[in-house]
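hiii so my PI (J.) wants the whole complex modelled not just the main chain, which honestly fair. so below is everything: three entries, each one labled with what it is. i double checked the lines twice but i was tired so who knows lol
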Amino acid sequence: MKISVVDVVKRFGDFLALDRVRLEVRSGELLALLGPSGSGKTTLLRIVAGLEWPDHGQVLFDGEDALSRGAGERHVGFVFQHYALFRHMTVFENVAFGLRAKPRAQRLSEPEIHRRVEKLLDLVQLGWLAQRYPAQLSGGQRQRIALARALAIEPRVLLLDEPFGSLDAKVRRELRRWLRKLHDEIHVTSILVTHDQEEALEVADRVVVIDRGRIEQIGTPQEIYDHPETAFVNGFIGESIALSVVVRDRDVRFGGRSIGIDPRDTPDGAATLFVRPFHMAILAASGENDLKGVVKRIHGIGAARRVEIVLGSDPEPTIIEIDALRTQQWHVGQTVGLRPEEYRLFRT
Amino acid sequence: MSIVDSVIGRRKSVIPGFGITLGTTLLWLALIVLIPLAALFVRTAELSLNEFIGVITSRRALRAFELSFGLSFAAALVNLVFGAVVVWTLVRYRFPGRRLFDAIVDIPFALPTAVAGIALTTLYAQNGWIGGLLAPLGVKIAFTPLGIFVALVFIGLPFVVRTVQPVLEDLDEELEEAAASLGAGRWLTVRRVVLPSVVPALLTGFTMAFARAVGEYGSVIFIAGNLPNYSEIAPLLIVIRLQEFHYADATAIAVVMLVAALVFLSLINALQYWSERRTGKRQ
Amino acid sequence: MTALPVTERNDNLAISLTGREPATAAGDGRRAALRPDARTDPPWIRAVAIGSTVAFLGLFIVLPLVSVFTQALAKGATTYIAALHDADTLTAIRLTLVIAAISVATNCVFGLIGAWAIAKFEFRGKNLLITLIEIPFSVSPVIAGLVFVLLFGLQGYFGPWLVAHHVRIIFALPGMALATIFVTFPFIVRELIPLMQQQGTEEEEAALSLGASGLKTFLRVTLPNVKWALLYGVLLCNARAMGEFGAVSVVSGHVRGETNTMPLEIEALYDSYQFVAAFAVASLLALLALVTLVVKAALEARVRED
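here's the output for the full assembly
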């Protein structure tokens, strides 16, 4: 099912949570809404789900207005961050809830409901827990049950609100891979809200980067990593060295000195230079126009060593960290040149 | 969003039933509580201001107020002092039967006032277990203001204990240990570390006991003797005026008591707020 | 060999250091007073405090309570039982039960509706509403009865209308029930609100998103989650309703065998010097109070689990 979000605006009192958000979710894709806390991603998800209503704008499911319907009528499966399992029902009863809550006319027979619930529990590999209560389950198990419960009603779209946020790192990684596999099996349109970029980049077909109520960029994980379109995306996704520079007369200057790179179509004025650490080459001999720095500290074990380099000193020294191959010999106090092999410039 | 929703600041919510549940709640509240209480003020307004003042400053009314408020204050004071001892003992010490005594504290809350009334009267009458012991000394308790005082101590007893108990229990033991490790003596530690956290709760309990005692009826009228100008409490005077069909007089006195009750209520709320701030429950 | 959990290790250490019993981790949340030294008061203070407590509680509470039963049985068990079988007494018991049932039922319904409105939604004036609901707690019971006499009594606002339509409220069951409802008004809703607020709206949102109707959500999800708090509120409401004296006294006609509840019957018997009978009826209410306290303690544990 296709979802269209058109110019949605949402305010909480004076706080603008969503600022004219436009989004198209393709049928069958797993889309990640990625952003820092307070960015509005959960609000957007809840609006799609029917748990909140926008102040302006439209939400369309396959072209039909979804806002005129409540959460129960939209046929969405919502998985809450803190599971929201019904604490006084067994796992089985939890998963069966959506099927049993239907009006008598549309309800399946008990044996059929039984069959479906068992199938779902097998799908999430937790059939053996059917008679337990949520309090007796681990966090990861609870989340899988929450997912099974949402899938029971055969939703047109699956909405997951930071589903792995309250789990520890190892369980989180296992579950996200499991989620991806599940999605490949059942192909339900899914929207996943997360603040964890590793998760978004690993699991999603496309990623929507959102900050302060605005969409910064939409693209595949590869696209937003390799071709970030805004300074925020560049800084938020992956590691970057960010330097404040000034563009003047087709020249880029750092700390008052030209550093010999092409500003491309960035206009004159203040700007930020983004370089992935592994795209910054360290050179022993320094050319006239290179970025220069002094090695402050070298540490680390393994194939690469972390080199801390101090650049410039006014108004404050900037320290960057680069991984250098073990084979290269640098020592503390040495002046080195730095050349960005690939970089992006964004106007500040 | 309707105008009502904007006025009360509510966003549209997926949880259904706001209008009907709030409406029903307000309606029921109005019917059972607000309108009847309003009738009290309306009826009193039938008196002119002079008449009103005349009623509440009549000798009998004044004496009744003095008795009710004065004895309630004294009883609450006794409950403050002994309640503090009791709650400290129950929370800090271990002794056989502690749990039982802790449970006993709730009895004045749970026991019907009429039961307490006749039990106390029989106990403190001249031929009662306690009254009998004191009679030879010339001390008469039942059917005197002293009897009223005893009854008011009884019904106010749990308030100080139960209000202070959670505060004392939640007190961080490390604070006292830190004070002790810094060389403070036990009394100093209690005075400077424990007491400040507990004082708001103590005052709250005191005010609650006071408020309850002022309005108390059932426990008191058996033991009081109920002689006008001597041992007649204000609630009883209201009942008497009502039976005489002097509705306006009754309501005038009732209005004074109701206003006092509302003052108490605000005071208690304020004290509870202060207590929560002192103990860090609220920032 | 499995490693000891941390608390056990520390406790063993405490024993070896001080030679005293370590602090117990009490389930009722009370930090044990047994941690040595820093929080121990001198023994003479302990003795005085414990002694005063026992004496004070014994004198003011235990003694009156015990005297209820001794007075009731003063003339023997047969007289006691006969007093309870008296026709007027039985009527009083029945009336008390009926009024209590009415009060509990009405306040239950109101409590659930009110708690839903207050706990599951955000709106301005919520605190004011809660304060208004709690007013009956601060009002003298006599005033509670008085206000209904003002409305429905012979000289009350609706008096003439009621007389014309042959409806009796004051000096009859309806008035007594109203006064009792007033007095017990906040009990149930007050127990439900904090719990429902603490539980939040997530489970309800989940149920609604799964397609359940509002009513179904309330019955299948919200209600089971608050059942212990509800029961607790019902218990307190019932105890107060059955024992209410002042408010009911004002609106009742005090007619023995007709409009006397148990507390009023006690008054009637006592005033006519039938002490044993009065205490016999009182003993029933005292037993009710004790049972209420026991069940209350049991429920408190359950409510905390929720």
